[in-house]
Amino acid sequence: MQIVIAGSAAEVGRLAAAKISNLVRERPDAVLGVATGSSPLAIYGELASQVRNKGLDCSAVQAFALDEYVGLPAAHPESYHSVIRREVADPLGLDPANVHVPEGTAADPAAACEEYERLIAEAGPVELQILGIGANGHIGFNEPTSSFASRTRIKTLAPQTRADNARFFDSLDDVPTHCLTQGLGTILDARRLVLVAQGEGKANAVAAMVEGPLTSMCPGSALQLHPDATVIVDEPAASLLQLSDYYRYTYDNLPDWQRFDG
Ligand code: F6R
Prior knowledge:
The structure is a single chain. The chain is α/β, with parallel strands linked by helices. It is 35% helix and 16% strand. It has nine helices and ten strands. It has a seven-stranded parallel β-sheet with strand order 1-10-9-6-2-3-5, with helices on both faces. Strands 4-8-7 form a three-stranded antiparallel β-sheet. The chain binds fructose -6-phosphate (F6R).
């Protein structure tokens, strides 16, 4: 796992965006895995600016969202259909036909999950999966004790996750209780993983993910199993890492061929 400690939250976004734009310039029809929530917003902002000002062309990129709430109509402003369209697809100029989000209102959620796995398999593998991490260590909405072998399925959101996401809704009661989420096994199938985290509230989860035991109690620790995972965090999110000096030293001494920050 490569750990990059960035000087600011904005720098986290800039570094992660560099990885993604390098990929898209090399492979304009790359398949990206996209996350929602606050963590990746700086990435999307930086990519959108490169689309506007630096000739980055995302029109052939395919995107697969990690998850969706169960029961929120796609048109609801906080459905991940809406969030992905607002924060990713529109600003980056993605073709709507190339943007996929699990069907949270499907009459048969299990069939919708199977169909989502089929779509990913058909288009994939996902070349680069963008991830955030929940304060409880979840990635996607794989809450603690999710199986490392799990595939896209219906999950019950942890009370902490509902409370954390209540900021997007009028009240806690409005936050759905269930979601469809790619499984940890689905996420691990991506060729590259780039996880970003900012702020002190993520410090425990980041330390558990990077330096803790491999355990379903911290679903993010599944990244330890992946051969190409990059974790980009700001100083507050890195504050509980024991080996932070080593990660800084490693990054400062990266050989040119491993650099991605332009
Ligand atoms: C969202 C997702 C979640 C978030 C996580 C962090 O698609 O998969 O794992 O990345 O809940 O959320 P924020 O970034 O809002 O702190």
